[in-house]
Design brief:
170 residues, alpha+beta, 8-stranded mixed β-sheet, 8 strands, globular
């Protein structure tokens, strides 16, 4: 069994012709992969991840929606522009059927699985997770997908709703 690549940078973009979100990821050795995420799967994933953020915040006296909203705004405001990840080969593209969430004290590891098995891992520390979730929520807007899966403390995002975004994960 081959080892699953660890994604270092990702570009998250809604693609109209697929009616899916494309996650183009780059590994440390500059290999690229494309992961296709359906609305159904993201609707299951988003509450798990935002719930983890809420539980994290509760231990830091951030249990109110107002405090969560401030933390979310701060994370999104600190997101620096990065060049988009351009996936080189459609052969490295998978429809993701499930995601395992491995919880740590300061972040999560998402293990993306296709029909063939594990295809990639994405480690997100708390701030990077907030940034990525803001981007995904913004892409929901681009696709016209209902946003009722998102907590109210995420609010309306500014620049993240209009264009695909790349997150550098270090």
């Amino acid at each position: 069994m081959r080892e699953s690549p660890e994604l270092q940078r990702v570009t998250t973009e809604y693609v109209v012709t697929e009616d899916r979100i494309r996650l183009s990821g780059a590994t440390a050795d500059d290999q690229t992969v494309v992961l296709w995420l359906t609305q159904r799967l993201l609707n299951l994933l988003a509450p798990q991840l935002t719930g983890w953020l809420e539980r994290q915040g509760a231990s830091e006296v951030m249990d109110s929606e107002l405090a969560q909203g401030f933390a979310q705004e701060a994370a999104e405001a600190s997101l620096a522009a990065e060049p988009a990840v351009q996936a080189a080969s459609p052969a490295g593209a998978w429809l993701i059927e499930s995601v395992d969430i491995h919880i740590g004290t300061d972040g999560v590891v998402l293990t993306f699985k296709s029909e063939e098995g594990v295809v990639a891992n994405l480690t997100l520390m708390t701030q990077a997770l907030r940034q990525w979730l803001g981007i995904v929520r913004g892409q929901y807007g681009v696709g016209g997908w209902p946003k009722d899966v998102w907590p109210t403390w995420m609010g309306e995002t500014h620049a993240l709703t209009a264009k695909p975004s790349t997150t550098a994960l270090h």
